[in-house]
Amino acid sequence: MIPFSHSWPYETSGNDVYVSECPFCESNHVILPMRKKELKDIREGKKKLLVFPCCMGSVYIVDTDADYLLANRRLRK
Question: Is pLDDT at 33 greater than 80 in this prediction?
Answer without folding.
Answer: yes
